[in-house]
Each structure stands twice: as structure tokens, then as C-alpha cells.
Amino acid sequence: MDPKDILSRIRMLEAGIVPYGVEAELKDIERGLSSLPKKDQRTAKRKFRKLWRKAAKMVDKKQRIPDDEWSTFAQASASGSEPTSFNRTIRKRLVRRHFSKKED
């Protein structure tokens, strides 16, 4: 495992969300959440949504997100409906990028 990946996972734990890697699969995240009590599951999910909104604000300001990913973000941030699998993947990537950029 890459040292940067390990640091990112540690930061995720410190932030209170279930850590996931580059190739995050929903079953791995669900398994991590299921190991927590119901109250902590809710807290971890809320923290992830908070981090997602923070990442979205960074994109809105076009900070740290390359222009070629701007259109992809626009698809992931469509509100008012249940997010698709693609939307969730983009959200996980943006939150993960938030943690991996902290060491730069």
C-alpha cells in the first residue's frame, strides 16, 4: 500500500468517516459502516456528506479541481433526485482527493 494512501486513510479516520482506497467499492464501505453502532453509522454518513459539500464548494470556486473534471462534477452534483452510482463514485473521488491533497 502506498504511503500517501495510508496517510489519506488515517486522515479519513480522524475526520470520522469510513476510510476507503482508490478503488473503493460500495460493499467495502458498507462493511465498514456495518461494523459501527447505528448512532455512529449515522454520524459517519453525515460527516461524509459534510465533506462532500466542502469538496463541492472547492469545485464551485475551481480550487484544486482540474478544469477537465468540471463537467464530471456538474453531473455528480445534480440535486433533487437520488444520486446514481456514477454520482456516488465522483463524490467519493472528490472527498478522497480532499484528503490526499492535505499532504501536499
Main beta-sheet annotation: none
User: Structural class, from helix and strand content?
Assistant: mainly alpha
Question: How many helical elements?
Answer: 5
Beta content comes to: under 5%
Shape: globular
Model description:
With 104 residues, the protein is mainly α. The chain has one domain. The chain is built from 5 helices and no strands. Helix 3 packs across helix 5 and helix 4 crosses helix 5. The longest helix is centred in the middle third of the chain and has 23 residues. It is globular. It starts with a helix and ends with a helix.
Helices and strands, with pairings:
Blueprint: H1 3-15, H2 26-34, H3 38-60, H4 70-76, H5 85-101
What are the key terms here?
mainly alpha
